[in-house]
Amino acid sequence: MKKLFIFGVPLIAFVILVVFLFSGLFSDPRELDSQVKGKAVPDFSLPDLMAPEITYTPEVFSGKVTLLNVWGVWCVTCAVELPYLTELTQQEGINIVGLYFDQDLDPEFGTKTLNRVQQEVRDITGRFGNPYAFHIFDVYRDTALDLGVTGAPEHFLIDHHGVIRMHHVGDINERVWNNKVGPLYRQLKQELAQQSGAE
Amino acid sequence: MKNLILAVLLAISASAWATEDSYEFDSPEQRQLFLSLTEELRCPMCQNQNIADSDAMIAHDMRRKVYNLVRQGKSGDEVITYMKSRYGDFISYKPPVTPVTLWLWLAPLLFAVLAFLLVVKRRKSSPPEDMAAKLAKAEAMLKQDNK
């Protein structure tokens, strides 16, 4: 009995430790619990990047399933995922909206002109593909902060009620789309079809 | 010694300067609140730095937000709640006491109590053997060797 105790207790403690540390190997510290998941898109009133006279509010998300892509031309990974996102819009007809924010544009000491930002965006999308229906220009990066964005690229799947259903940090490639984003996107599409069928 | 003092002074002044940016405050209390808040809030990008130290863009933006909120007369708790509602409990270096985090405080305490109990039990379970009996045994062995 005593022998069992002497060998058993350290063994159990060791196994628990190994399981704990092993699971730590695969946990991503960047993966934070998103606070906006399951909530409506926070209120905003922002201009279109290309046509600043147009103003968007969360209303633009109602009635369709949207993939909101937080990005900027200064972000390398964002440019890398552009070809795949473009392919997705052609294959699946996704409504991809850009939430654009600029890094160099310091809200306190704005130095860059809007024209230059527009030109940079045209250059990049001309080179790598343009999956965007339009761009919402997050001038002061306030909406990005409200959404809990920590960098770029980040993605939000928004259902037809304007509720955020998924917050994906990082790029979307074929693997991420097939395993994570795609299945939920199809489910949201189905929900939309069911609702419009019921009406 | 003089060099050491100089080095320490330099280090302190550099860190104070780094957090200052170009923000101006209505009162010294507001400045103090801003400094303590940026020290307590954690940068979600550079995860082992607070937003006062970090140079990530998100840290810049969060400092600006904290500054604006402080200028609006918000209290420290309100600013922390504001950030927590966007980035979760992660954003603060002071973890809240929840059923999950409770173990951070309980586990060391339990460990100490357990160790104490074990020591006490050890003491009791090994009573000193009878010295006389031991000596007699040794004597017998010696006698046997001598034969």
From TrEMBL, chain A:
Compartment annotation: Cell envelope
SUPFAM superfamilies: Thioredoxin-like
GO BP terms in the entry: cytochrome complex assembly
Principal location: other
Organism: Alteromonas lipolytica
InterPro entries: Redoxin, Thioredoxin-like_sf, Thioredoxin_CS, Thioredoxin_domain, Thioredoxin_ResA/DsbE_sf
Name this protein carries in UniProt: Thiol:disulfide interchange protein
PANTHER family registered for this protein in UniProt: THIOL:DISULFIDE INTERCHANGE PROTEIN DSBE
Keywords noted in UniProt: Cytochrome c-type biogenesis, Disulfide bond, Redox-active center
Disulfide bond is among the record's keywords: yes
Domain Thioredoxin residue range list: 35-193
PROSITE patterns in the cross-refs: THIOREDOXIN_1 (PS00194), THIOREDOXIN_2 (PS51352)
GO molecular function, one term: disulfide oxidoreductase activity
GO CC terms in record: cell envelope
From TrEMBL, chain B:
Presence of keyword Lipoprotein: no
Signal peptide annotation: 1-18
GO molecular function: metal ion binding
Keywords: Cytochrome c-type biogenesis, Heme, Iron, Membrane, Metal-binding, Signal, Transmembrane, Transmembrane helix
A GO CC term assigned to this protein in UniProt: plasma membrane
Membrane-spanning intervals of the chain: 102-120
InterPro entries: C-type_cytochrome_biogenesis (IPR051263), CcmH/CycL/Ccl2/NrfF_N (IPR005616), CcmH/CycL/NrfF/Ccl2_sf (IPR038297)
GO biological process: cytochrome complex assembly
Annotated ranges, domain CcmH/CycL/Ccl2/NrfF N-terminal: 7-139
Family: Belongs to the CcmH/CycL/Ccl2/NrfF family.
Function in brief: Possible subunit of a heme lyase.
Name used for this protein in its record: Cytochrome c-type biogenesis protein
Organism: Alteromonas lipolytica
